[in-house]
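Notebook entry, structure prediction.
Reason for the run: the old model in the group folder had no record of what sequence produced it. Starting over properly, with the input documented here first.
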Amino acid sequence: MPTLNDPVAITLGPFEVRWYAVFILGGIAAAILLIRWLAARRGLAPEFVLDMAPWVVFAAIAGARLYYTLLQADHYAAHPLDAINLRLGGLSIHGALVAGTLTVYLYCRMRGQRFLTWIDLLVPGVALGQAIGRWGNWANQEAFGTPTDLSWAVTIDPSRRPAEYESIATFHPTFLYESIFNLANAVVLTWLALRLPRTSWLRTGDVAWLYFITYGVARLLIERIRTDSLTIGPLPAAYWLSFALIGAGAAMLILRRTIWTGPPEPALTRGG
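New structure, fully documented this time:
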C-alpha cells in the first residue's frame, strides 16, 4: 500500500486544501445522499435531512474535536490555536456520535418527528461517512497500527513513526481495516433500515442499536493494534466509549423487547 507524501490536495495562492478535509467532507456528502435516499424509500421527506444536516454536522464535528482536545488537554493548553486547526487532524468519532445523537434527538423533538425512526435511517449514512472519512488518516499518516511486513502494509515517513518504531517503515493500516468494516456495516445497516417496517422481529431503533454494538466491537478489536491510542486511566479512551456503545446497544435491544416495546412502526408517512 503506497504512502501519501503530500497531505495538501490543492493550493490556491496562500490557501491550502488538505486531503484530510477532502475525505471528511466527501464522507459527509455521501452520508447525506444515502440518508436522503433511505428517507425517500421509506416514504419520509428527504428535505428534512437537509434541514437537519447543518446542525448535526456542526455538532458532530465540534463534539469530535472537543473530545479529542480534552484527551490531550496538556498539549492544547500550551498550544490553544492548535485546538481549532482541524486541517492537522484530531477528530474522535466517539465524541461525534455523542454530540450528533443528542442533536438529532433535540431537532426531532423540536420538529415533532420520531427520533427512533430517523436515527435508524441516519446510522447507515454515518457508517458510510466513516468509511470514506477514515482515508483522511491515511493522508495525515496517522491512526496506523503496529509494524508488519504484510503486502498491504502502509509506509510511514520517519517523522510520523512512534519513537519505539523509528527504524521500522511499514505498519498495519488500521484506518483501512476500519474503513472496510464501516463500508460493509453501511451495506448491512441499509438493508435492515429498508426491511424494518416489513419485518416483525425488528423494532424501531434496532438499526441504531445494532450499529452501536457492531462498531463498538470492531473498534475494540482494531484499537488493540493502534500505536497512537489516547488513554483514560489504564486503558485506551476508545475502549471505554466502545464498552459504553456496546452496553447501550445491547440494553436497548433487550428493553425494546421487554418493558419498553413502544408503539408499532407507523405506516409510511412524510416528515417535514
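Summary: Residues 13 and 101 are 38 Å apart (CA to CA).
The old model has been moved to the deprecated folder.
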